[in-house]
Specification:
With 997 residues, this protein is mostly helical. It is built from 45 helices and 10 strands. Strands 1, 2, 3, 4 and 5 form a 5-stranded mixed beta sheet that branches. Helix 5 crosses helix 6. The longest helix is centred in the last third of the chain and has 32 residues. The chain is elongated.
Length: 997
């Protein structure tokens, strides 16, 4: 007897074997049904190995209670003596309360688990048909179905079959059941059966040979008249047979139901006739079918009834399925359908939805199906209705990365295993992960997670769902497919003939040269060539969307030649979101970005959306930190400046790529609607990287000549567009150099050091190299080119106090420290504040002087032979008009309006409008003109690779500028008219505000 307060040894053993209610288990073990075996270690070990030992023990006792007296001992002896039966029976009882209930109602059905022959290990349709052969009515069919299901579940929970095999067996059992149900229906109405041929086409998971334990069985019915019978009589007869078949499977009887038979995937859904003839099906699919209907037909498979008619149906619809990707908006339709499915999930269930939620089974299935439909047109090896088989074929063909395919396969198997175990418990149709701890514990243990089943289950579930979500976004939403889906049939894998035709159609000027590039890229049997053949049809279309597709293809070949042997390059283009389209846009938009990329092709990684990718500018802080660190590691000034220029080149490419992609737009994201925002991003990015480059160069020069400390404090002041954060790709860096001798250092020594720094910086930043030069322009300094390059702060103060002219004060409106000693830079800004924002504003004499200077500049500086109306800087309504107007407002009112005290043109313009110094309409007119002129200058540099203030005269270059500005082929005239119109309106406003006209 156990002492009070102490637990029995049996209680402890039960806990150790995984029982959660040892007291109840002790009582069950003490029951008369288990007399003689309650202490048998074999039984306890076997119970402990189940998903739910408590449930398994209860089910065993109930099963023994249901046995007639003599049979009880037979069952018990067999359980103890025969390990295969013991594992199967207890495994089922520990995983499924519903099958335990079935065994209790039909106590001899346990005997189906005794057989352990090879045919029993992997049964097919014929074996299941034999198992259902004696079922002559719906009730008997249900009993026989559950008996067959019992054997499938036993193999599943014992690990004899894996997830795909279990799903295939469930689909085979469904096939046999549909055949048996049709036989029952035909026997009940032989007169109808004699009039028609009826084919049952399995769809969805049943058609794909990957059915769940409890799932709707999706079907389509095809009917034809037998010879000599009128179709008007045959189709109604077939409809009655089909409806009866559905009731046999779906209706609830004393033995429950089997599963619902769902025919809603038929033409017109539930509103359409249940049965159609083959010709009626074809007429509908050819004229009315939606994209999702062809996606559904991917899994169509004849399973019951007239299999010859079913085969005719598949042969007729199969070509339509593989043409679906040619439909307009095919990929967009599929994506929209997937998003709609997610949006319709109740908010409270999204996080528990195993099938339809983000990272769920449907994500895998949709992604695989879309890849099949796009690429299966040219590759018959992809035409499988089974998800995992199709995924394997996609990986073998190079359409999906091998590593991605392995991860998706693992995740899909795990999620399907969870789904199976959830449904098996009560044999109910659900895809929700239960919230109850006991349920999660049972599921976890059934999957082999025994240390901490609940925590391990949730961790593995979230991990696999995360993998699916990440890979689904790469596979399903990548724009490669959208473009590939719009190609003419047969062009996914290019033949030379198809390539020539495609090139001519796309407007390549030199198709022969382009074809040579294509052949060099796509020929061969390597995996690299296979991936190129998949990418090229898509890239050709993107190149053709530019003004110079020949250049795009040539540049792509150059990049591929440089990077083709690196393992990540083609993987990036195939897998990383919009990387391929971004690259296509960049390579065909002009000379600047490709030139920058060719100098360091590995920068193509920036075009992806994975780690290390992304086109968003990095900002001044990180850039300067990188440049300073690179300069600090260098052995000499030359190496330090080379490193800083390398950073500049890479970031120039990043900014140019962002600008091009934002201006062109992509298939997934339209062109940036706010062109002013894009101008601001580019101006700030180029200005930041220029400042970082100067900071790195300054550090390198000082370290090489003086160590860590220069004899004089030194700062660089950005001027003009540099100080205004408005630099373009081809802009010089307008600067002033300021120094201040350190304590105890003679002024001459400090001045010599400062001048040497400036001279060395200018030299090193222009040394010929793979990186673009950075020209430093100090002409805005006091006395211009005649004055010293570097002055002390006191010298600047003396000059500005005594000699400063109004144009110099105006130039100082854009002054901002960009590199060097921060304190010295702040003191310089304090020094010039009274000059650029004079107290009480400008006097009339100063205003007249500014107006005179502007008028003289317009007449003297405009290049000869230039159309003034198209000159973006000096022409009417150009940059100069807007900037001088804004600067005059700043100098007149900046002393009283803090918002005007900015170096940035657009900010100052917005502040002037907010202060009521000009109307909203006038401000918008000036802003629009300034943004457009800036974008034209940026476009000219991107297209030609060299700076320019006017529109190009070359037709192709002009078209490329138009494409950047959003004008399609043939609309160059519209672009020029729009520029003239915008500039004319701005000039009108400028003359009123600036000249007082």
């Amino acid at each position: 007897m156990t002492a009070p307060g102490r637990r029995s040894s049996t209680f402890t053993r039960l806990l150790r074997h995984g029982f959660t209610d040892p007291s109840a288990a002790e009582r069950l073990l003490d029951s008369v049904e288990l007399a003689g075996v309650r202490d048998d270690p074999v039984l306890l070990e076997a119970l402990g190995a189940t998903a739910d030992p408590d449930l398994a023990l209860l089910g065993l006792v109930r099963l023994l209670e249901a046995q007639p007296g003599p049979d009880r001992r037979e069952l018990l002896d067999t359980v103890i003596a025969a390990k295969p039966l013991r594992d199967r029976l207890l495994g089922v009882l520990g995983a499924s309360a519903a099958l335990a209930d079935h065994l209790t109602r039909h106590p001899r059905d346990w005997e189906v688990l005794v057989t352990y022959e090879p045919s029993d290990l992997h049964p097919g349709v014929l074996e299941f048909e034999r198992g259902l052969a004696d079922a002559a009515d719906p009730v008997a069919l249900r009993v026989a179905y559950r008996r067959c299901l019992l054997s499938i579940a036993a193999r599943d929970v014992c690990g004899t079959t894996d997830v795909p095999q279990t799903a295939a067996e469930l689909a085979d059992l469904a096939t046999a059941t549909l055949r048996a149900a049709l036989a029952i229906a035909s026997a009940a109405a032989p007169e109808d059966a004699a009039l028609c041929r009826l084919a049952v086409i399995a769809m969805g998971k049943c058609g794909g040979h990957e059915l769940n334990y409890v799932s709707d069985v999706d079907v389509i019915f095809v009917g034809e008249a037998v010879e000599g019978v009128d179709e008007a009589k045959a189709v109604p007869a077939a409809t009655r047979l089909a409806a009866h078949l559905m009731r046999i499977c779906s209706e609830t009887t004393v033995e429950g139901s089997i599963w619902p038979v769902d025919a809603n995937l038929r033409p017109e859904g539930r509103n359409g006739p249940l049965v159609r003839t083959l010709s009626s099906h074809l007429a509908y699919y050819q004229r009315w079918a939606k994209t999702w209907e062809f996606q559904a037909l991917l899994k169509a498979r004849p399973v019951a009834g007239d299999l010859d008619l079913g085969a005719e149906y598949i042969a007729a619809v199969d070509p339509l399925v593989w043409q679906a990707a040619e439909r307009e908006n095919f990929v967009a339709d599929v994506q929209k359908m997937r998003r709609r499915v997610v949006e319709n999930i109740p908010v409270a269930e999204v996080d528990r939805e195993l099938k339809l939620g983000p990272g769920g089974l449907r994500d895998v299935e949709f992604a695989v199906q879309m890849l099949q439909l796009v690429h299966g047109r040219a590759d018959p090896t992809l035409r499988s209705g089974t998800t995992l088989d199709a995924l394997q074929a996609l990986a073998a063909g190079g359409y999906v990365g091998r590593a991605d395919a392995v991860q998706l396969d693992d995740a899909y198997r795990f999620l399907r295993s969870m789904e199976h175990r959830i449904q098996l418990y009560r044999l109910r149709r659900t895809h929700l992960v239960p919230e109850d701890h006991a349920d999660q514990r049972r599921i976890g243990r059934s999957l082999g997670l025994r240390v901490d089943p609940v925590a391990e289950l949730n961790r593995e579930w979230r991990r696999h769902a995360g993998v699916v979500r990440r890979l689904h976004e790469k596979l399903f939403y990548r724009p490669l497919l959208d473009a590939a889906a719009q190609l003419a049939p047969g062009e996914v894998r290019l033949s030379p003939k198809a390539a020539r035709e495609r090139l001519v159609a796309l407007g390549y000027v030199d198709p022969a040269a382009a074809l040579r590039h294509l052949e060099a890229l796509a020929s061969g049997v390597t995996r690299k060539a296979a991936i190129q053949r998949t990418l090229l049809p898509v890239l050709l279309g993107w190149f053709a969307d530019s003004a110079d597709p020949d250049a795009g293809l040539l540049n792509f070949r150059k990049v591929s030649d440089a990077l083709g042997k690196t393992p990540w390059y083609l993987r990036l283009l195939r897998d990383e979101g919009a990387a391929a389209e971004n690259l296509a846009r960049v390579l065909s938009a002009g000379r600047l970005a490709p030139d920058l990329l060719m100098r360091a092709p590995e920068a193509v990684a920036l075009l992806g959306d994975g780690p290390g990718g992304g086109l968003r500018p990095r900002g001044r802080g990180p850039l300067e930190q990188e440049a300073l660190a690179a300069a600090g590691r260098a052995e000499n000034a030359e190496q330090g400046v080379t490193a800083a220029r390398g950073v500049r080149r890479r970031e120039l490419f990043r900014t140019a790529a962002l600008d091009i992609v934002g201006s062109y737009g992509t298939d997934a994201r339209p062109a940036e609607a706010d062109q002013g925002a894009l101008v601001d991003v580019v101006g700030a990015a180029v200005s930041d990287l220029t400042g970082a480059t100067l900071a790195g160069t300054l550090r390198a020069v000082v370290r090489a000549g003086w160590g860590d400390t220069l004899p004089t404090r030194f700062t660089i002041i950005g001027m003009g567009r540099f100080g205004g954060h408005e630099l373009g790709y081809g802009s010089d860096a307008d600067v002033l150099f300021v120094h201040e001798p350190r304590e105890g250092v003679p002024e001459r020594e400090a001045s010599d050091a400062a001048n040497k720094v400036v001279s060395e910086m200018r030299r090193l930043l222009q040394v010929p190299s793979a990186d673009p030069p950075l020209l430093i322009d100090a002409d805005l300094r006091p006395e211009g080119k005649s004055g010293p390059l570097v002055r002390t702060l006191n010298s600047y103060a003396a000059y500005y106090r005594r000699w400063s002219l109004v144009w110099e004060a105006q130039a100082l409106l854009r002054a901002e420290p960009v590199a060097g000693d921060e304190d010295l830079g702040r003191r310089f800004v304090d020094l010039i504040a009274p000059l650029r924002y004079p107290a009480e504003g400008l006097g009339e004499d100063a205003v007249r002087e500014i107006r005179r200077l502007k008028a003289r500049m317009e007449s003297e500086r405009l290049p000869r032979g230039t159309d003034p109306k198209l000159h973006t800087k000096l022409g009417p309504g150009g940059l100069s008009d807007v900037e001088w107007t804004v600067q005059l407002i700043q100098m007149r009112h900046g002393w009283a309006e803090p918002g005007l005290r900015t170096t940035r043109t657009r900010e100052a313009l917005a502040a002037a409008r907010a202060a009521g110094l000009l109307s909203t309409e006038d401000a918008e007119t000036l802003d629009e003109a300034w943004v457009l002129a800036t974008r034209v200058r940026n476009a000219v540099m991107l297209v030609r690779g060299r700076a320019g203030d006017t529109f190009p005269t070359d037709g192709r270059e002009l078209a490329a500028v138009g494409r950047y500005l959003g004008y399609g082929s043939g609309h160059v005239g519209d672009m020029l008219d729009a520029y003239r119109r915008t500039a004319r309106r701005a000039r009108t406003v400028m003359e009123e505000l600036f000249y007082g006209a």
